[in-house]
Design a protein that fits this description.
It is a single chain. The chain has 668 residues and is α/β, with parallel strands linked by helices. 38% of the residues lie in helices and 15% in strands. The relative contact order is 0.10.
């Protein structure tokens, strides 16, 4: 078996950590670990790196466990399901949990958290016993690393508890506050889901708001601020705004500041309004090399409400730490887009919170979570809006999270029939066909230009044609950055256009495309050839540096410093100004004419070019395409082979976890 694990590592199927973990499991089992247990341990470790919180053994029983690249490489198959489960149940490295008992226990006081001394540092009795001696957990047919089972279970218990709690705010008081914030309700108007979201945030401890770009999430946050401050005029709540990355935090700060400017004067507690958003790592006091965050259940955050933007980017451990650090009285408001890319790390938490596995009826084209009749009546009193009561409102299938979930579907940026609006909606719905898109089914460029609408173009560019195809785009867009008269103009031109790639490596990847752009600029004599630092070079920060005030995802420009004419890296401030950083002080960074779709999350550009590789890959999904095209405000061009594009349109991100099952009671 050791030779088999070594071979899989040499083939690149397993990482050194996967192999060492499987070997570590074997040394911890006094009964001796069978091949079935070792392979399961290696597989669960490998899949965690791919984003799965757990593995479902039903998916792997008697099937190939690892993807090999060559036909002559050996295939390793999973075992017959019953035999596999029996082997794991007998192992001293595996703790067996009854799935039905665990689900029922979620409705009771937390059985694994009541005596905890700390959230993640072996403080609770559960962690003391389970993690050192039983590093794996088997619940039904799902196999977890013990720590991730704990993250998932504890997060589910805390979220359900938040969702079940009603805040003692009379609907009449909420209604009075709503009238000061929103315009009067029109009898013939469609349901205003922004108003519904503000009412949920006022009367519930948990509010989950999902909506795509242009659906007014920032406006809704501003409305929630207003409503809460009118409700609590005598003692305004302490509200903290946060996001998973520095770039997302800066963006929501800027957007919210503009929205709040119209009402901040004369509102009680103006000094309590957040001046800037924090990254979740900074909020929780998480630092590299520190096992525990500063804020835990025993040392909770000092706040009355926490609003988290771009929640779809949050992985399971970070979400678990965040929710665990809330004080008992606090509200939690999560904003995101359930149709966007999942987090880079393990889990698809926000999508699970929005009921990815639940059965949702459709009301006038809107996904409508099943709400309790009592809660609908409360909302109607608070908002003055007549809401439909789903015919499926049955207490036996009702989840407490459904009362807390609001979907914003109306797009204020794109009209429903605009090419970009139709493109995003059809990708999200799974109704788009690659042949129709590449056949210009949306509109011709001339017609689009005549109508003044956003442009959508899709075509295939072969590898040997990439340089020639990029040249006119470099002339039209990136050349303007290098030729700008001042820093403000250079940033404006850079933010007008961006190339988004699905992959990093290969001829269609970020690294190669950036090199082609720089070659084209050098041929135009706009930048010096073979020079790493030059005027107008865009740089993307890839790691956080709190001392420099730079965060993963920040984009800056190299530009001469008027004081000494030397090149500095310049970044936008929240107030619209700029701050400079010496090149020697820059944290890890890369060229940013092209960037991955993942790095572009939370950004907006006037136009984008989306480049897919010339072969199918697991990373090409419907969510990736949706995220890419919704970065644009005025135009999208896609370079893709028809068969590759069709595969991406059909592939949906699937990450294994039990969180949706625990939250919604849906079939795992």
């Amino acid at each position: 078996m050791e030779n088999e694990l070594d071979l899989l590592e040499r083939l690149g199927v397993l990482s050194p950590f996967d192999r060492c973990f499987a070997q570590w499991i074997s040394r911890r089992d006094a009964n001796g670990v069978t091949r079935a247990v070792k392979l399961a341990a290696a597989l669960v470790s490998q899949r965690l790196r791919q984003g799965d919180v757990c593995i479902d053994l039903r998916d792997w029983a008697e099937r190939p466990l690892f993807q090999v690249t060559r036909a002559e490489d050996p295939q390793v198959f999973g075992f017959q399901l019953k035999r596999w489960l029996d082997a794991l149940a007998r192992s001293q490295a595996v703790h067996v949990v009854d799935a039905k008992v665990a689900l029922t226990a979620l409705t009771k006081p937390n059985p694994i958290r009541e005596s905890a001394e700390s959230y993640d540092g072996m403080g609770s009795d559960f962690q003391k016993v389970l993690i050192p001696s039983r590093p794996l957990v088997l619940e039904g047919t799902r196999l977890y690393l013990a720590r991730y089972w704990f993250y998932e279970y504890d997060l589910a218990w805390r979220l359900r508890k938040l969702a079940e709690d009603w805040i003692d705010v009379p609907p009449e008081l909420v209604c009075a506050a709503m009238k000061k914030v929103f315009p009067p309700v029109s009898p013939n108007e469609d349901v205003d889901w922004q108003r519904i979201a503000a009412a949920v945030a006022a009367m519930k401890r948990l509010c989950i708001i999902s909506g795509g770009p242009g659906t007014g999430k920032t406006y809704t946050v501003a409305a929630i601020f207003r409503v809460l401050h009118y409700i609590y005029e005598e003692r305004p709540p302490r509200i903290i705004l946060a996001a998973p990355t520095g770039k997302a935090a800066a963006r929501i700060t800027d957007s919210l500041r503009q929205s709040l400017a119209s009402f901040a004067h004369g509102i009680p507690g103006k000094e309590n309004l957040p001046q800037e958003a924090l990254t979740l790592h900074r909020l929780l006091g998480m630092r590299q090399g520190r096992a525990l965050p500063r804020y835990t259940p025993e040392n909770p955050l000092h706040l009355d409400a926490l609003i988290v933007d771009e929640a779809s980017m949050i992985d399971l451990p970070l979400m678990a730490h965040t929710v665990a650090a809330l004080p008992p009285h606090a509200r939690l408001i999560l904003l995101g887009d359930k149709d966007q890319l999942a987090s880079v790390e393990a889990g698809n938490v926000f999508c699970d919170l929005c009921g990815r596995l639940s059965q949702k009826p459709v009301y006038q084209g809107l996904s409508w979570p099943i709400k309790s009749r009592e809660w609908v009546e409360k909302l109607q009193s608070a908002t003055g809006i007549e809401l439909p009561i789903s015919p499926l409102s049955n207490p036996s299938i009702h989840s407490p999270l459904s009362d807390c979930t609001v979907f914003l579907e109306k797009n204020y940026r794109f009209p429903p029939q605009s090419p970009l609006g139709r493109l995003a909606a059809s990708i999200r719905a799974g109704t788009l066909n690659a042949e129709a898109l590449m056949g210009k089914a949306f509109a011709t460029p001339n017609a689009l230009a005549k109508e003044g609408q956003a442009r959508v173009v899709c075509r295939w560019v072969q590898e040997r044609e990439l340089s020639q195809a990029l040249n006119p785009l470099v002339k039209d867009h990136f050349q303007k950055v290098a030729c700008a008269q001042n820093l403000e103009e250079a940033f404006r031109e850079l933010e007008a256009f961006r190339i988004l790639c699905a992959v990093r490596e290969g001829p269609f990847g970020v690294t190669s495309i950036n090199e082609l752009v720089e070659t084209a600029l050098a041929q135009l004599q706009r930048i010096p050839a073979e020079t790493r630092a030059y005027k107008g070079k865009p740089v993307l920060i890839v790691e956080n540096d709190y001392q420099a005030g730079l965060f993963n995802g920040d984009v800056g420009l190299l530009w001469p410093d008027p004081e000494d004419t030397g090149l500095k890296a310049w970044f936008r401030d929240l107030d619209g100004g700029f701050h400079k950083v010496r090149l020697s002080r820059l944290p890890a960074h890369e060229t940013a004419y092209a960037m991955t779709v993942h790095k572009a999350q939370g950004s907006e550009f006037s136009r984008v070019l989306v480049i897919l590789p010339d072969h199918d890959a697991r990373v090409l999904t419907r969510e990736l395409l949706y995220t890419a095209v919704t970065r644009a405000r005025h135009g999208v061009e896609i370079w893709a082979q028809e068969n590759v594009l069709q595969s991406a349109l059909q592939r949906v991100t699937e990450r294994r976890s039990g969180l949706g099952f625990r939250l919604w009671g849906a079939a795992p």
